[in-house]
Backbone:
């Protein structure tokens, strides 16, 4: 039966194995990515037992890349992208050159041809979109300047790879002695590729920018949630696919532009929410698919080369990135974050390696090294990030002492204040009321655009997810008198209430709910007063009805 449904088998095996291994990783307190990669190794062809379809898993992983890049695009404006070009363009290009050179050095030592060395070096020079974005998201860094530089850097690498991929076949021909016209052939190929990329961008900015928001607006006004969800998915996947098949650019780039165009509309937040669950599921499948490619025998066959490959990816690339970012005048903190986020390789490297071996440029050993290097670098990436955080902490020790003093002062001011979570429909009205009654208020909000609005309205804001104790502490929860949780998700509010209560036993907690189950859940988790929105609406409607009877006409 399984042989008749390889797609279902691959999805099920991938997700189930990832769930179990992810849960084990969670219990062992290691990064979930390590669990997903291990799940991939388990269902991969190099370990006994069930073997999922590698090609299908790779295609499913592409969906993860598309949805992730679409999500990033939603939070990115063209202005953001252009604002980091001064560092992202030279930074990415210099780093690609350095990593390629290091790869070439290794392969010349191994006695491979120049072309093989070039492909190998290039494969080591590009970071994985999924790994970078997941790492940034997990640490809430995407909306920061560091995050923007990293995404800009990623896009330049992506474009460089699009060019490298189209150049590889003519290059292979040239190496095979395919005629004197090789040089001009290559120039023409580069020209055509650049033209296509520009064509795609122009098309999106001129045509897409008009049609896509219009279509989504129309769908939003039909009032059908299902249709809206479908429309968002159709736009993300449709544009990515169209971009790849018509303009030959990568899926990721297509999806990024689709997201960026939608990001300019009012509907971007809803669009982001609708794609979230699918995005996470497919991003997990990405890691599983990487794990599947791992052949443990490489470790025994080429241990030294593998060690050097991993060192190039983790140390060589990040040292180059660090030096470049510092040379451009950015802080150590920014440089360390960018360096850590790029200290891995992924999907583009696999594609390059695959094409390289198909064309007979790259020996099989090269592909194996790239695959093993990728999985090892992705596996240790969370550790690299943690080490980077330590480095940042040391670099900022002096600044921290000063910041501590300011923080203590602020805390004194904040004592007995109200912490409000969420500045949406409910939170906004509450905040206005609190201001009028002269209460000191600190607002926690996790959506950057909403946060900006609250700041413009003159409130004290802490940016972040209130479910994190760090964010709650930053808002001075330990010294606060009251907590108002004005978010629509009752169960998430339960987690927040529980953590806040733990940090401050005297706190009075008010919460908002939308069902009786949520009310009970919130009360169990430490909320003192819970308002059920729907019940209040019904009460008010009944009162209005009664009044309209009393006053006929
Ligand atoms: P509304 O449902 O319109 O009142 O909006 C709720 C607001 O709460 C939105 O602006 C959300 O971004 C915000 N929000 C939801 N969950 C959290 C959370 N865990 N931490 C901080 N803000 C949140």
Residues:
């Amino acid at each position: 039966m399984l042989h008749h449904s390889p797609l279902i088998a691959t999805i099920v095996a991938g997700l189930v194995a990832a769930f179990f291994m992810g849960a084990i990783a969670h219990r062992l307190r290691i990064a979930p990515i390590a669990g997903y990669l291990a799940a991939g190794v388990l269902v991969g062809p190099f370990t006994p037992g069930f073997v999922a379809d590698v090609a299908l898993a790779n295609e499913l992983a592409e969906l993860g890349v598309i949805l992730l890049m679409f999500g990033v695009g939603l939070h990115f404006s063209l202005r953001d992208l252009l604002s980091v070009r001064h560092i992202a363009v030279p930074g990415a290009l210099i780093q690609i050159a350095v990593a390629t050179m290091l790869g070439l050095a290794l392969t010349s030592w191994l006695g491979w041809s120049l072309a093989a060395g070039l492909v190998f070096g290039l494969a080591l020079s590009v970071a994985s979109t999924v790994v970078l974005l997941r790492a940034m998201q997990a640490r809430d860094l995407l909306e920061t300047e560091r995050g923007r530089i990293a995404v800009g850097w990623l896009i330049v690498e992506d474009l460089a790879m699009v060019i490298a991929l189209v150049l590889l076949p003519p290059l292979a021909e040239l190496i095979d002695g395919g005629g004197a016209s090789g040089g001009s052939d290559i120039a023409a190929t580069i020209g055509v590729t650049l033209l296509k990329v520009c064509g795609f961008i122009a098309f999106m900015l001129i045509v897409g920018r008009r049609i896509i928001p219009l279509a989504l607006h129309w769908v939003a006004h039909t009032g059908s949630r299902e249709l809206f969800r479908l429309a968002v998915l159709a736009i993300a996947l449709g544009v990515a696919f169209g971009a790849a098949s018509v303009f030959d650019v990568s899926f990721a780039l297509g999806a990024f532009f689709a997201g960026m165009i939608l990001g300019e509309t009012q509907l971007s937040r809803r669009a982001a929410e609708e794609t979230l669950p699918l995005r996470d599921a497919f991003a997990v499948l990405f890691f599983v698919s990487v794990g599947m490619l791992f052949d443990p025998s490489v470790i025994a066959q080429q241990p030294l080369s593998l060690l050097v490959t991993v060192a190039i990816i983790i140390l060589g690339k990040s040292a180059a990135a660090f030096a470049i970012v510092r040379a451009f005048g950015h802080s150590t903190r920014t440089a360390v974050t960018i360096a850590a986020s790029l200290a891995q390789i992924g999907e583009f490297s696999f594609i390059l390696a695959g094409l390289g071996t198909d064309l007979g440029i790259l020996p099989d050993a090269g592909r194996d090294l790239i695959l093993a290097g990728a999985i090892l670098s992705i596996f240790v990436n969370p550790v690299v990030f943690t080490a980077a955080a330590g480095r940042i902490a040391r670099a900022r020790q002096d600044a921290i002492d000063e910041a501590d003093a300011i923080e203590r002062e602020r805390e004194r001011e904040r004592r007995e204040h109200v912490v409000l979570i969420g500045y949406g429909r409910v939170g906004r009205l509450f905040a206005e009321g609190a201001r009028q009654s002269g209460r000191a208020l600190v607002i926690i909000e996790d959506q950057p655009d909403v946060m900006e609005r609250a700041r413009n309205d003159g409130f004290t804001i802490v940016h972040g997810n209130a479910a994190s104790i760090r964010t709650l502490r930053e808002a001075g929860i330990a010294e606060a008198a009251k907590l108002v949780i004005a978010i629509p998700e009752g169960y998430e509010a339960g987690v927040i209430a529980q953590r806040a209560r733990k940090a401050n036993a005297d706190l009075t907690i008010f919460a908002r709910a939308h069902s009786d189950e949520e009310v009970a859940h919130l009360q169990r988790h430490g909320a003192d007063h819970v308002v059920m929105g729907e019940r209040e609406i019904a009460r008010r409607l009944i009162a209005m009805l009664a009044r309209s009877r009393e006053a006929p006409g």
Summary: The CA atoms of residues 91 and 324 lie 6 Å apart.
